[in-house]
Amino acid sequence: MSTSTAGGGGKPSRSSSAIIADTASGYHILRIDGYSGTKGTPTGEFHKSRTFTVGGHSWFILYYPNGASPAEETPLASEEVTTFRSHSSSGYAEFSKREDLEKSEHLKDDSFAIRCDIVIINNVYAKEIDEEAATPAFVSVSPLDLSAHFGDLLLTENGADVVFEVGSQTFAAHRCVLAARSPVFKAELFGTRKESVTTGIVRIDDIEAQVFKALLYFIYTDSLPKAKKEEGEEEEDDVMSQHLLVAADKYNLERLKLIYEDKLCKYIDVSTVATILALAEQHHCNGLKKACFDFLSSPTNLKAAVDTDGFKHLSRSCPAIMEDLIVMLGNLVL
């Protein structure tokens, strides 16, 4: 650190600065389906992921089932990236021992996934900090708690003026809150369709009770209900996500729809891709549809998916999707 001095008394000058790293980040998930079939890959040979982009740079992952050299045959190879030059690569021979992987919960139905997180430091620079902002605070302001208050309002039912009958359950709510959050509820409760709810009781027949309960929770708190996930509930969570996406689309809750569109992208596999693709087409979920097509761009995934009953039903019920899929496959060949 260099310094300089200046004469004179009086109040000392004060200033603050910060060292800031300008970064770009992203991640790629590589699924290894049919793990047992890769165990026969000769030492030194690898399987390459599709190229992906993070921070304006192209990346790919090399998976060596039996290591890059004879000394590395036991572990599965990969490593966190540290420093790179253009066209260089890095790896770690002892990323995971085969026996540890095969005993772990990560290997399921002969499949596992690897997530590669990448952080790129583009520039490091100094920035002056506003002195007023840098002054120690003597008063601690509590965080926002509006959503908690509205959540309590839903829970206590204080002031509720409408009741929804869903299956065998009833849910009390507040017309103004629902109308402020959903244009569909606004039309039903205050607009052209309000005549049907003058009694204060609304019957919902096309949504399950647990789905409607989660929908109300999001409307009041702008967050998802916290569920205690038991072992083996992943498939159930997948189905619940599909129902909530449909409900969000029905009531024009765009943020909730995007949340579950994103969640469903993580559930795409051979057994679910047909159902999820049909859902994406029916409810205009472009991102989810692209994720399904990306999964099907793998010849292995496509062949396995085409043999499922769900895909056969998809080809009959949504011929437009099949046309889009044919165009996508044609572009890949070109």
Automatic annotation (TrEMBL):
Residues 160-228 form the BTB domain. PROSITE patterns: BTB (PS50097), MATH (PS50144). Pathway: Protein modification; protein ubiquitination. CDD domains: BTB_POZ_BPM_plant (cd18280), MATH (cd00121). Residues 25-166 form the MATH domain. It holds the Pfam family BACK_BPM_SPOP. InterPro entries: BACK_BPM_SPOP (IPR056423), BPM1-6 (IPR045005), BTB/POZ_dom (IPR000210), MATH/TRAF_dom (IPR002083), SKP1/BTB/POZ_sf (IPR011333), TRAF-like (IPR008974). Belongs to the Tdpoz family. This is Uncharacterized protein. The lineage of its organism: Eukaryota, Viridiplantae, Streptophyta, Embryophyta, Tracheophyta.
